[in-house]
Specification:
single chain; 5 helices; about 0% strand; mainly alpha; elongated
Length: about 170
């Protein structure tokens, strides 16, 4: 019985430490992104960085192992598997994926500019523009579908035997 309780306590400590790391890392990352775009609070970066390090140390102390790399990536990842596709139309899923491509490309451009990586900047620019073109394509498809539906409705409500007047 005692072993099960210790395992449960260990899992609770691990979960709490994971949440603390996630919050501190997201808080720092969000502020860094805002600072890069000209907003944000640059003066809080040292304090936020220290908070990330302290939560990583607390995790190691609580769990006995360093925080897993893949979980660090997962904390900051967005876009992939963000929405449940079964709850949305294909167009909505496509729009979400295109918007994610725009954001990922924009982030790549910003990161590459910070450290002078021209090739990576161009790759980000390409990804960003592909997302923009996909959104434009989806909007054009939606407009064409609305136009087709509108024409069908117009034809369906016209009285029989009368021709549509052209004004």
């Amino acid at each position: 019985m005692r072993l099960a309780s210790e395992n449960a306590d260990g899992e609770i400590a691990k979960e709490r430490a994971t949440l603390d790391v996630a919050w501190a890392l997201r808080d720092l990352t969000a502020n860094l992104l805002r600072v890069v775009r000209g907003a944000g609070k640059a003066y809080t970066i040292p304090e936020q960085t220290q908070a990330v390090l302290l939560t990583l140390i607390a995790y190691r102390d609580a769990v006995g192992t360093p925080f897993p790399d893949h979980e660090l990536s997962g904390i900051l990842a967005f876009g992939q598997n963000r929405i449940d596709a079964s709850k949305f139309t294909d167009a909505q899923v496509g729009q979400s994926m295109a918007l994610d491509a725009i954001v990922r490309g924009s982030l790549q451009v910003a990161a590459s500019r910070l450290i002078g990586q021209g090739t990576q900047e161009r790759a980000g620019d390409t990804e960003m523009h592909r997302g923009i073109m996909e959104i434009e394509r989806l909007r054009e498809e939606a407009r064409a579908a609305r136009d087709r539906a509108s024409r069908r409705t117009f034809i369906a409500v016209r009285p029989r035997g009368k021709k549509a007047s052209r004004t």
